[in-house]
Amino acid sequence: MTAPGSTPAPGELTLTVGPAANGGSCVARHDGRVVFVRYALPGETVRVRLTGGAGERGSYWTGDAVEVVEASVDRIDSLCPIAGVDGAGCCDLAFATPAAARRIKGAVVANQLARLGGYQWRDEADATAEPVGDAGATGWRTRVRLDVGADGRAGFHRYHSAELVHRLVGAQLPDGMLAGVAERCWPPGAAVHVVLDDDGERHIVVSAPRAARGGWARTTTVAEGDYEATQRVGARSWRVPVTAFWQAHREAPRLYSSLIADWAQLRPGMTAWDLYGGAGVFAAALAELVGDTGRVLTVDTSRGASRAARAALADLPMVSVLTDSVRRALTGQRGRADVAVLDPPRTGAGRDVVDLLAAADIPRIIHIGCEAASFARDIGLYRQRGYAVERLEVFDSFPLTHHVECVAALSRG
Fold this sequence. Notes:
alpha/beta, CATH 2.40.50.140, Rossmann fold, 3 domains, eight-stranded mixed beta sheet, six-stranded antiparallel beta sheet, 8 helices, 32% strand
């Protein structure tokens, strides 16, 4: 529906697009109005099918590039057979060379840091995201969630849609990860969680809705393998629920743990907080640094992740595992840590958590973010409270997509 007094969007336009925007689109303009175009690369001329907008007052439309009139030299045949316009929403940069995709991601992060964080990381033209290990752009994913439609078929969602794509051959997936899944009939409305663990074993857990007193609940069943998957970082093993959080990229836990150990600047006897700690991967790395005379507190709201942390870190008496919200945990802490490591969800840590860390006078913070805008906002909040960015890296932890992982080390004297 068009808002009163607004200008309705035409069906199609031919536009030359400009730089990449956060979220996977490129920015174009038409008669003074911004148009966010998906499936285009900077500098291309494309025919755009308009998909929505905010009318005249909102001053923008959205659209999909349905034909490339003048292609970028960075455009390639899509590496994902099911992604693209009218396809699955999984691999929205699969049509760009991996190197170009990393440059686009770096430029977006640099732009967001400058706009929302007031921090000049790098010039957009020189910024890039670093590759994660040597896994390459395809076959890197170890965990995937599929949803099930009313017909009992599992699939990937189309972009911003309840519709499902039932061809389960995405380019992020290792060969055979979803073999046989498309042929099975699953409970309607269920979520199908598939993990290929570090032993090469496949586990499938189904979370399905069921009627319960006062409404609906969900029941969890194991369809293949076990409820818990084996994950390893270095010599340490975890048994993590298939439905719990673990880094999707198979090389990411090792990379991030090594980086945090390097940046933490901890010594024996010090104290570290691992916030939004999940199964305690970072807590294990921090514990090695603080030793038997130090202390590590890891906090997460997930009971399953906390159970995995307690089991995997049972031999580390300096580690305490707390199942609670980060905000409540920080409110209840007495004393301060020498370093706090944060790996919040996509929405970031936010003002309240940053305020609590600043009030606790934490001298050193390592902040990880998987969404460019919320990461940049949090960096700005730290800087407003007297923290300075010492180091900042951006990683292409989600190849073929617009998503990134950002890590910053901040300090306050």
